[in-house]
Design the sequence.
């Protein structure tokens, strides 16, 4: 083993030790050292990486992703995940034995996209997964969440928190709960004329009326609270048109005339 | 010319295997001379025609015909000739004799044009693919691509575009598409630098196909959005582009745009391209379902497509009725077909449209219905169906799928009366978009009209034309020299 690689693996051992101790500051510091060493190392060599080098690199990024979840840094998660992804998808995956962490991390990424409401990317990632991958509990969890979310079965989304397949998922599930609350608020606003405070509190998942009032004040100041009821001000939709939109009509008619002239 | 005639006379009787009248070899020679004149006169149009004629001949190509043609078109004994003939099986001695005989008469006069050389590559490649000798096709196409990279002639571009296509096809048939991605990208770059628009168009499509083959939608979209776009040169390539674009947009949930691209692709595709149109229709059906539309029955009854579209027809039926159970059973029944079509994940997405349609039916039929009944009718199988039904209805109301209100205290859903649509601006918008569509269609049709060049002018005499061309060439030389001076 060449000295550089030895240095990397030693550093990585220290990193793992700190990781188990949950000493996140040391972890972050060691990680940035590791990353620069790794990148530099490969740049110098200019030859295809060996399998054990690949495995170490993949291991480092896998830990980096999990670390970013633990320190609750979504941007770092995205960055690290994109660095990790080639190790899963590209040609080297044929030579590399599959990682046990692969599906949990892919599922985690799906969950992140869901939380950030990036549904298009969610589906793009989903297309990359093979049929057996879709059967994996970690992936399935995220896929089912997305379905329930799209349908509007929010209860199912919330109850899914109890059945997380991996401890790291809890962070994103908590974030998801907040997204769900906003969704429920948006839906209730349109669907109900009014709700009793009790029902509203239960629906928006608050334990006390106080929290509910604060939420309403911050997010939906247009809602009215009267006689123990929350009253929603619903916008008047597509009222029968009283006025003729003359300017628009004139514009359209003129453009038809112009086009017709061109034809004749 | 006399030599050509002689050659034909010799070739026709010897070609007992494929003695269809007039012989393919004769055809090939005519095409070759078409390419020659095209190359000398720098008329791309002629070469396009040559390719079109070749495609007609495709089924009639035989090893003996090809090797005879190679000998007449290329310099025998040259590197290209020996390489290309090595791909062809020697069928019998009789043909060999003909080869040597013809080469003896041809060798001194011919010097092969790059266009002809590339054309020979193309012919051999098509032949190899038709014979299902894919590994040889791969090596042949790779050799031709290496040669192409060193050629920079506008008249080659048309032939090159076809070669790129078969290059990719030969790799796709052996399932090695990932291997040539880098090569295709560099070819695309070269084509862009040379302003070879047809080449760019073809290569972009091949790259998109390459990415989509591995479901790399992200990369495909990034390439597509950044590659230069211009007016389409070839209808076929444009159709393909639209189809890939439609697929990408479907995956990224831009259903309205996706539908437009897919339907346009299906409409523009030539009638003969049945497989392509079936694919377009499959995707279009799903996209329309995802949009909440129900495709008409005629879509599924198109000639030659009934069988292929059957699973999608049953799926549509399930969505139309809004029956979750039926939908599930259809999805399971045809799971293998959907997976091989790559539409499985899209069908998973459809589940929520089924619920929506069911809900819409309920809201139309009942003016007031309890949420428990809604849950029963939708067959929601969960631990707390009423609460689920309530939130699903709430979301449907917010998304505008149904027009209703919820009453939480009584636990029922109240449907609103549907208003008179003609009292709103809605019909006017609809008419406007239709008129705009028709006008646009007319404008595009006018733009697509083509006229033969210079047909309105007097016919130039041959002498005059030569003079003019000479002048043009001198001018070009001058310009080139000036360019050199600049450096």
Sequence:
């Amino acid at each position: 083993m060449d000295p550089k690689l030895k240095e990397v693996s030693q550093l990585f051992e220290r990193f793992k030790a700190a990781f188990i101790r949950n000493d996140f500051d040391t972890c972050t510091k060691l990680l940035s050292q590791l990353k620069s060493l790794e990148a530099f190392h490969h740049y110098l060599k200019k030859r295809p990486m060996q399998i054990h080098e690949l495995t170490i690199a993949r291991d480092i990024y896998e830990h980096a992703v999990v670390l970013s979840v633990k320190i609750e840094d979504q941007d770092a998660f995205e960055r690290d995940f994109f660095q990790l992804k080639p190790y899963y998808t590209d040609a080297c995956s044929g030579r590399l034995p599959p990682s046990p962490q692969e599906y949990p991390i892919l599922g985690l990424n799906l969950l992140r996209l869901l939380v950030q409401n990036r549904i298009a990317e969610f589906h793009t990632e989903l297309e990359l997964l093979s049929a057996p991958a879709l059967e994996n509990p970690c992936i399935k969890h995220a896929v089912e969440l997305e379905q329930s979310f799209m349908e509007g079965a929010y209860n199912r989304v919330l109850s899914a928190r109890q059945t997380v397949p991996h401890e790291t998922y809890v962070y994103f599930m908590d974030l998801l709960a907040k997204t769900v609350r906003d969704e429920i608020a948006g839906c209730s606003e349109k669907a109900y004329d009014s709700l009793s405070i009790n029902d509203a509190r239960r629906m928006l998942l608050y334990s006390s009326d106080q929290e509910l009032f604060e939420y309403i004040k911050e997010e939906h100041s247009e809602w009215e609270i009267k006689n123990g009821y929350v009253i929603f001000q619903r916008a008047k939709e597509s009222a029968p048109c009283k006025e003729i939109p003359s300017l628009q009509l004139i514009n359209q008619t003129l453009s038809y005339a112009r086009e017709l002239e061109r034809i004749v | 010319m006399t030599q050509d005639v002689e050659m034909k006379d010799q070739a026709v009787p010897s070609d007992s295997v494929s003695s269809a009248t007039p012989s393919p070899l004769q055809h090939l020679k005519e095409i070759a001379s078409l390419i020659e004149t095209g190359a000398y006169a720098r008329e791309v149009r002629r070469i396009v025609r040559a390719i079109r004629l070749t495609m007609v001949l495709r089924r009639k190509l035989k090893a003996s015909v090809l090797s005879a043609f190679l000998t007449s078109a290329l310099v025998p004994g040259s590197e290209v000739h020996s390489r290309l003939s090595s791909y062809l099986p020697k069928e019998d001695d009789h043909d060999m004799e003909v080869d040597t005989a013809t080469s003896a008469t041809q060798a001194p006069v011919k010097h092969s044009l790059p266009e002809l050389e590339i054309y020979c590559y193309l012919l051999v490649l098509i032949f190899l693919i038709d014979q299902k000798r894919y590994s040889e096709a791969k090596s042949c196409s790779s050799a031709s691509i290496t040669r192409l990279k060193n050629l920079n002639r506008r008249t080659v571009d048309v032939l090159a575009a076809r070669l790129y296509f078969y290059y990719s096809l030969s790799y796709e048939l052996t399932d090695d598409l990932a291997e040539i991605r880098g090569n295709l990208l560099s070819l695309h770059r070269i084509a862009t630098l040379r302003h070879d628009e047809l080449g760019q168009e073809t290569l972009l499509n091949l790259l998109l196909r390459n990415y989509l083959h591995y479901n790399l939608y992200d990369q495909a979209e990034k390439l597509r959005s950044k590659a230069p776009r211009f007016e389409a040169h070839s209808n076929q390539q444009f159709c393909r582009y639209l189809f890939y674009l439609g697929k990408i947009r479907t995956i990224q949930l831009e259903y309205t745009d996706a539908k437009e691209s897919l339907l346009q692709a299906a409409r523009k595709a030539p009638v003969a391209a049945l497989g392509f149109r079936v694919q377009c229709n499959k995707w279009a059906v799903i996209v329309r379902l995802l949009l909440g539309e129900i495709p008409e029955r005629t879509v599924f009854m198109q000639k030659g497509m009934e069988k292929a579209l059957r699973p999608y027809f049953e799926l549509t039926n399930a969505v139309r009725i809004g029956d979750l159970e039926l939908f599930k059973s259809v999805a399971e029944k045809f799971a293998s077909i959907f997976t091989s079509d790559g539409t499985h994940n899209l069908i998973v997405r459809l589940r929520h449209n089924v619920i929506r349609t069911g809900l819409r039916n309920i809201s139309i039929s009942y003016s007031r219905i309890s949420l428990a009944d809604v849950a029963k009718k939708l067959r929601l199988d969960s631990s707390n169906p009423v609460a689920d039904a309530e939130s699903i209805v709430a979301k449907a109301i917010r998304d505008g799928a149904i027009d209703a209100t919820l009453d939480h205290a009584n636990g029922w859903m109240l449907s609103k009366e549907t208003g008179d649509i003609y009292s709103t601006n809605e019909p006017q918008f609809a008419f406007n978009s239709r008129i705009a569509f028709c006008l646009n269609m007319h404008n595009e049709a006018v733009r697509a009209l083509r006229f033969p060049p210079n047909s309105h002018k007097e016919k130039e005499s041959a002498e005059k034309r030569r003079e003019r061309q000479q002048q043009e060439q001198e001018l070009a030389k001058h310009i080139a020299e000036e360019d050199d001076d600049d450096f």
Remarks:
- The radius of gyration of chain B is 30 Å.
- Chain B touches chain A through 48 residues (CB under 8 Å).
- The longest strand of chain B covers residues 404-407.
- Chain B has 24 helices and three strands.
